[in-house]
Amino acid sequence: MGRKQAAPKRRAKAPSISVPAGWKVDAGGKSMSLRLETKDFLEAVALINAIAPIAEEIEHHPDFHLEQWNKLRITTYSHDVGKLTDRDERLAKRISELLKARGML
Question: Which residue, of 9, 42, 62, 85, has the greatest Cβ tally within 10 A?
Fold first, then answer.
């Protein structure tokens, strides 16, 4: 009798966009996130407020997750199509530029 071969493991489809340094694509390839640690709660909230006008300008809004008092996770994905798009790439790049200017990336 022949041996059954294990089904090949499915790999997450690589996004067709450029992922900025520091950002991590989720296992399913549908979103990307950046984790930051700020000096305190107020800096984390100030960062969210600094990102908000960028998101409004691009018309693409990330999810913000403020955990504990200084750990911020920023996640972006295109809700309407359920995957990463060029809008996510543009937003992540702009957020990264802001963070670099603040010495946080």
Answer: 62
- Cα–Cα dist 54/85, whole Å: 17
Is residue 90 within 8 A of residue 42, CB to CB? The reply is: no
Contact 29, 13 (CB under 8 A): yes
User: Is 0.85 surpassed by the pTM of this model?
Assistant: no
Question: Residues 64-80: pLDDT tens digits?
Answer: 999 999 999 999 999 99
Q: Looking at the domain assignment, is residue 47 inside a domain?
A: yes
Q: What is the Cα–Cα distance from 24 to 12, expressed in whole angstroms?
A: 13
CA distance 15 to 28: 10
For the segment 10-33, what is each residue's pLDDT rounded down to a tens digit?
A: 444 545 889 999 999 998 999 999
State the residue range of the domain holding 93: 24-101
Q: Let me know the angle formed at the C-alpha of 51 by 85 and 91, rounded to the nearest 5 degrees.
A: 15
